[in-house]
Amino acid sequence: MHEVDMTKCLLISLNEWRDRREDTSAMVETVHLDVGRFTCVEPDQLVTTYNAAVQGTWLDGSRLTITEIPFVGRCLICNGTYDPVPENAYRSPCCDNPLEEIVSGRELRIRSIDYRSDAAAALESAPIQRQR
Ligand SMILES: [Zn+2]
After folding, report:
1. Is 132 within the bounds of a domain?
2. 105 CA to middle of ligand 1, Å?
3. Distance in Å, CA 98 to ligand 1 centroid
4. In the chain, which end has fewer C-beta atoms inside a 10 angstrom radius, N or C?
């Protein structure tokens, strides 16, 4: 299943993000994901898979929101952009040219992560050494 693999990649990226920050108190609230329409990923299915996969992990309770990026091709004959459709094998409707350049639609990336962190609060509440 495509979405299961995508979720695995996403979890690996999020784990790496946390390791890089060296802040284990980071609580992820929302993960904003860009998904191109040419990736064959079903956004609803990806959210369902994600919600099941994060149960019992440090990401439990976080939310995945998906922004769909349209599938746009460029016709290399007239340089115009168009919406490729499988009905005519993704050829350009203007010049009937085969799809040679994809402008957008293959994206699968984390746009941003909303999170809370106790790091700042922990620093403030740490005992201050009394001066003698
Ligand atoms: Zn054209």
Report:
1. no
2. 19
3. 10
4. C
What average pLDDT does this structure show over 32-46? 93
Residue 85 has pLDDT above 90, yes or no: yes
Domain range spanning residue 66? 2-70+105-117
State the CATH number of the domain containing residue 62: 3.30.2320.50
128 occurs within a structural domain: no
* Structural domain total, the chain: 1
| Residue 121: pLDDT over 90 | no
